[in-house]
Amino acid sequence: KTSHYRANCFCDFSIDRNLRKPKSTNFVMDTVNSLGTLQDEACTDVRSFFELAPSLKNRDTITQKVNEFVCHNSHSSENLKSIGVVCVTSGGTTVPLEQRCVRYIDNFSSGNRGAASTEYFLKAGYAVIFVYRRGSCQPYCRYLPEDSFLDFFGVSEKGEIQVCQMNDRVVKTAITEYHSAVDNGLLLKLPFTTIFEYLQILQLVATSMSSLGPRGMFYLAAAVSDFYVPWENMATHKIQSTGPLNMRLSQVPKMLLVLRKEWAPLAFGISFKLETDPKILIEKANASLRKYQMHVVVANELATYKTEVVLLAFDGRVLTIRKQDEDENANADIEKKIIKILVDMHSEYMETFAKE
Length: 356
Ligand code: PAZ
Known about the structure:
The chain is an alpha/beta fold.
């Protein structure tokens, strides 16, 4: 039932034909009804989450930056340089345990996927709003040393800063490409730390990007907390260690459906699903696709996420992308293949609007 073939970009595509089967009318109506209820519930939960969350610092400045960026990259802009605008989220959100936070729960993510994907989206002609966790991996800095940035530089006898010869090319490329993206108004970076900041920034970006219609895209690679301590239940000061700590975490409301249906309803939505148990990965990714009405869900397993992902698309396509052994060089990240496929899917999606 599953056919495998090799495409010219070295990806193994597996298309599960069962997923293309037309559904019965009853099934469709049930799905529509339950989605309506789910959407109403999600909207209510999201509204109360925002009402109770600590307000975002510099909200007005961030809003202005995002609006200007979106306007600069909108169709009406005279100097339009991008084919689409993508919001890439990257890194893990934290859940503070105290309002004056000393301790927090964190989520696994280095930000490498988001940073690499940003570079490939820019290369493909997109403008990128990079919403990233403070301190996580940055676009064009992936090849710089992790431990000491200073290892890359030296000081000449005249006191001038020099790049060590062996790193010369990497640093020049990084500086040139980064500045070119920023100077042309194609890269906007917005940092977050907590789940509260992340969701407020996402809402703000999404509502601004809704003006772009189908040219907008969301590539949600950030590892977002599922559980949190509501602000009003949180200890104000550092929790004292006077015995075992009992904590009750609430569920973070499901923003994906609200993003898709309310904040930016025409944008192309891609979310990620990470699991450690391979037995449930595809089932969970499929559930996300249906429940949150995403256009694509990228399923990956913790043990193999750098070398294998499965793309499940809303039209039933299921593509397995693998980093091959022959790709083992710095310029052949799996993200290069993922972005190529997603850009093609997004073009097809935009074409359906152009025809209408
Ligand atoms: O940031 P990174 O490169 O270390 O990891 C990327 C990832 C595994 C966090 C990402 O591919 C992903 O699956 N994000 C969604 C995680 C989630 O299910 O919440």
